[in-house]
Structure formats: structure tokens, C-alpha cells
Amino acid sequence: MRSRIFIWVFLMASMAGMAQDAHFSMFYSSSLYLAPSFAGATGKNRLAASYRNQWPEADKGYVTYTFSYDHHFEKLNSGMGVLFFNDVAGTGNLSTTNIGLVYSYDFNLNHLVHIRPGMNFMYTQRGLDFNNLIWGDQMSAAGNAPASAEAVAYNNVGDLDFSVSLLTYGEKFWAGFTIDHLLQPNQSLYYNEFESGNLARVPIKYTVFGGSKHIVNQTLLRPIPTVMHFAFLYKQQEDYSQLDLGFYYYYNPLVLGLWYRGIPGISKNRKNDAVILLAGLKTKNINIGYSYDFTVSKLISSTGGSHEFSISYTFSKPTKKRRPKKMVPCPEF
Questions:
Q1: How far apart are CA 269 and CA 280, in angstroms?
Q2: 179-236 pLDDT tens trace
Q3: What ranges do the domains of the chain cover?
Q4: What is the DSSP string of 215-248?
Q5: What gap in Å lies between CA 201 and CA 188, rounded to an integer?
Q6: Helix or strand or coil: residue 268?
Q7: Looking at domain 2-143+153-315, what is its CATH homologous superfamily?
Q8: What is the pLDDT at residue 230?
Q9: Model-level pTM?
Q10: How many CB atoms lie within 10 A of CB 321?
Q11: Could you tell me if 309 and 299 are in contact, meaning their C-beta atoms sit under 8 angstroms apart?
């Protein structure tokens, strides 16, 4: 058991050390985390929160939260928001915390197509509870020794980071990309300013996403249309790549979704990952969603999949006159 605990701690630390960002299955529910271009994209005020519990059957798997608020400034044709992100993993509670200020601007190319650039300037912090770790020199047949000769790391280290994105959309399509970690912040818990070799720079991440909206049925008796959304998300961060493909079916007020994550036959490090089922409720102001990842990789018997919950609330001040605004047609689940 002790050996397994040590191996798990080492595995979690190694995976985190590769600096791969956390991901969400319901990535449009965490739209500011996906791309800062989505700030203000609802044309209203929006509060949103997401929670993800990845690998619950493993001891101390990944637990990730996001909280965000964004507002649409109609006179400025802009959106602004704040984004809080926290991810904790492993026995040592290896954590990443980001607090960012998000801005976007909407260019109306014509009555059919909009372009929306965005940026996110943030403070990021990496932390570790060193006292919760068990190192190899502490383990023996007689029991665990109280101390280790391993060099003690900092409890946390902070740095600045910056992301940019571009979103284009029309009435029935959207597409965009995001470039994260342009400042490549240092997250080394052993950082010494006189030793350049021990930096742990977060590699730049490239994200491409898009999709289309298709009206299945709309009648006078049912003015809210039944809609199918087809979408994709591709991410590349150093040697790591990931592709999500799927669709959403919206029959007011119910939303159902089916997704596949993986790149079979192409990616060396992730051929098959998960099949994702999603269900949610979508009303005028409140969206609630739940998804479950069925692991289909070699970890199928040891992770317990992943649970994810999301909720968002949109609201606006009543006005006498309000110009109609074209919304991004992508789903919020």
C-alpha cells in the first residue's frame, strides 16, 4: 500500500510537471476559460460556475473549479469579465490558481458575420503541501520515517500570464482559436533566481474550436425551435494533443449531448480517452448541466471516469429601447 501511495504521488506530480492545462467536457459552460472572446457574448450579465471531479476512484484525483462573471457594454460594443480558476491534484494538493481580467470587442463585418477578438490578463499561482508527501527515504519495513532528506520546496509561487483569442460567428456557425500562456509563466517550486536551469515554464497552448447550428423543428405552437449543434475542440500543448467531437440536441427545456475525446490512429500519447454523455436544462435565464466521462483508455478499470457540473445565470437591466444583438449561436453546455 505504501509503495502504491508513493507511485501515485509521483505519477500525479509528474503529470502536473508536464504543465498540461485542465480541461472541461462541457467547455462551452466555461466559455471564458475556453476563449476570452466569449466575454459579453450573451449581450447580458452572466454568472457561471463549473465543477469537475476527474478520476474519483483514484486517491486524490483532479478537482477543478471555475467561477466567472461577464458583462456586455452595448455602447462600447465590448465585453468584460473576471475569471477565477482553481485545480487541485494529488496527495500533496498540487494546486493551480488563476485570477484573470477578460476583455473582448465585437466587429460587425456585415449583417451576417461578426469577428470578436479577446484577451485575458491574469495572475497565476502554483502551490504544494509538501508535508503531505511521502518520499522514498521515509519508507521502510519498520514504518514511515517522520522526515525526508528531500529539499523542501516553496509552498507556492506566482507569476503573470496572458492569453488571446479570436472568434468569428454568424447566425448558424461559429469558429475560433485561442493562444494561452503567451508569457510562459514560471511555476517551479524550487526556483532560484541564480540558477536558470530549474525554471518550469508553462508551454504555450493552442486551441481551435467551432461548430454549426441546425434547426430541426419550429412551429407556431412551439416557437422555441428544436436545435442540433455539431461542434469540435482541438488542443495542442507541446507533445500533448486532444480532439473532442460531438453534438448537442436541444428540445426545450431539455439538452442532451454525446461526445468522443481522442485521436485514434494519429496521436501517440492519447489514442482513445473517453465517451461523454451530457444532460441539462436550459431556460430563459438559468442553464444547468451534468456530464459523465466514460473512460475508454487503458485506465478504464481504475479511474471511475469523471463527473462534471455547470450552472449559469444571465440577467439584464430592463430598458425602454434595446437594439437587437446577434448572439454567438454555440450552446452553453
A1: 32
A2: 999 999 988 877 655 555 557 889 999 999 999 999 988 776 667 889 999 999 999 9
A3: 2-143+153-315
A4: EEE--SS--S-EEEEEEEEEEEETTEEEEEEEEE
A5: 8
A6: coil
A7: monomeric porin ompg (2.40.160.40)
A8: 96
A9: 0.85
A10: 4
A11: no
